[in-house]
Structure formats: structure tokens, C-alpha cells
Design goal:
alpha+beta; Phosphatase 2c, domain 1; 5-stranded antiparallel beta sheet; 4-stranded antiparallel beta sheet; about 40% helix; globular
Length: about 230
């Protein structure tokens, strides 16, 4: 999570990477991507902020970062004779807009009077749902629910998806790895992460800690990472 002040107001960049390939390997892959976004935030963001319409150049920058990291991880994996990769879900809050880049099955949600997923998983079960061969309920219990069709650092290519929209005061945005959402419901996410449940920073922290512990109690074994943001 990176913050900056500008003439255009406060800017926030939040990034979730869920590494794969075992603990050490997943950490190498995810840290490669996160460090690249930190460098971009520190060196290239001032130019982006000054643009009257930043969307095109912003997404072009992010595509280059993803593809560069993909090649770096692939090269390292080949040299070490190992396999690793990472999901990516990054959200930039800037000048009354949100901008998202997504690879894999980490997600970004928008909460107002309901829970709306802003991203689309690059996963086997999502493809099966799209093709009408699997229901969302079947996907939740499928043994292939964690199989990704693409991630950063594995496979021949990676093509990130981009999303954007307007920000409004008093809304909440949730980012999470897939381990956060497998065994809890949208209703539970809304109960603890909605704008009404997010009246101050400490309560927001307490609520996501509660949901994380609820996941563990229900024997979720996957990595759990979550970020909750409320607009002022």
C-alpha cells in the first residue's frame, strides 16, 4: 500500500500478489511484481498524475510492468529449474477514479448497498462458468478451483485485464487473495466490510481480522491476504 499527496488530491495504490510454487518460490515471484509497482509509483506516477486523461498511458505502463516481470520470473525459473508465479491485483485511487490491473484469481470488490466484484478470474472454473459447463456453486467445491489459466511468471504469455470507474464518498473497496473468499459468503463480506460496518480505521481492521480468523476456523488452507479501503 503506497500513498502520496498531489495537487490533484491524495493518491493511493494498493497491490495484492498471491505467490505460487511453495513459500520461498512464491515470495520471489510476488516480491518481484510488488517491487516493480513500487518503483513505478515513485518514479513514473508524477507524470501520470499531470495528464488530463491518464487512463491510456497508465494501463500501458502497467502492461509493460506485468510483461517485464513475467519474463524476469520465467528466466529466473529456467535458470533455477523450478516453477513459480504470482497473481496480481492492483488498484490505483486517483482524482475521483479507480484503476485496476488484474492477472489470476485475486479479486477487487466494490461495496455500496451490495457486493460487486470488479474483476474477473483467470481460472479454470471461471472459464467453465462462462461456457455454461459449471455453476458458481459447483465452482466453489471443485477440486480445480485454484487452477489458473494465467499468472505472472508461468506459461508462455500473460495478458492483464484492466478496469476503471468513478469513486464516490462513503464507499468501500476490498481486495483479496482467493483464500479469503472460498469459505465465507458475500453476505458475510458485506456484513463486515460494507460502508456501514466501516465507520473508522480500527473497526475496519477488527472486521477483516475477524473474517480472516473465520476462514481459518472453517479450515481454509490457502494464503489469505486482504485490503479494505473506504473513500472519504
Amino acid at each position: 500500500m503506497m500513498e502520496a499527496e498531489s495537487d490533484a488530491g491524495n493518491i493511493l495504490l494498493t497491490v495484492i500478489c498471491d505467490g505460487m510454487g511453495g513459500l520461498a518460490k512464491g515470495e520471489v515471484a510476488s516480491s518481484t511484481v510488488i517491487e516493480a509497482f513500487i518503483r513505478w509509483f515513485e518514479t513514473d506516477l508524477p507524470h501520470i498524475v499531470a495528464l488530463p486523461d491518464p487512463e491510456r498511458e497508465l494501463f500501458s505502463d502497467w502492461r509493460k510492468i506485468v510483461q517485464s516481470c513475467h519474463q524476469r520470473i520465467l528466466s529466473y525459473s529456467a535458470a533455477q529449474r523450478i516453477t513459480m508465479g504470482t497473481t496480481l491485483n492492483a488498484v490505483l485511487f486517483m482524482r475521483g477514479r479507480y484503476y485496476i490491473v488484474n492477472v489470476g484469481d485475486s479479486r477487487a470488490y466494490h461495496l455500496t448497498d451490495s457486493v460487486r466484484c470488479l474483476t474477473k478470474d483467470h481460472s479454470y472454473v471461471q472459464r467453465e462458468i462462462d461456457m455454461g459447463r459449471m455453476t458458481p456453486e459447483e465452482a466453489l467445491v471443485s477440486p480445480q478451483r485454484s487452477v489458473l489459466l494465467q499468472c505472472v511468471g508461468a506459461g508462455e504469455y500473460v495478458e492483464p485485464e484492466f478496469f476503471c470507474g468513478d469513486l464516490r464518498p462513503g464507499e468501500t473497496y476490498l481486495q483479496c487473495s482467493d483464500g479469503f473468499r472460498h469459505v465465507i459468503t458475500d453476505a458475510e463480506i458485506y456484513q463486515y466490510c460494507s460502508p456501514a460496518a466501516s465507520t473508522d480505521e480500527q473497526l475496519m481492521l477488527d472486521n477483516i481480522v475477524y473474517l480472516t480468523n473465520l476462514n481459518k476456523y472453517r479450515r481454509e488452507r490457502d494464503n489469505i491476504t486482504v485490503i479494505l479501503v473506504k473513500t472519504e
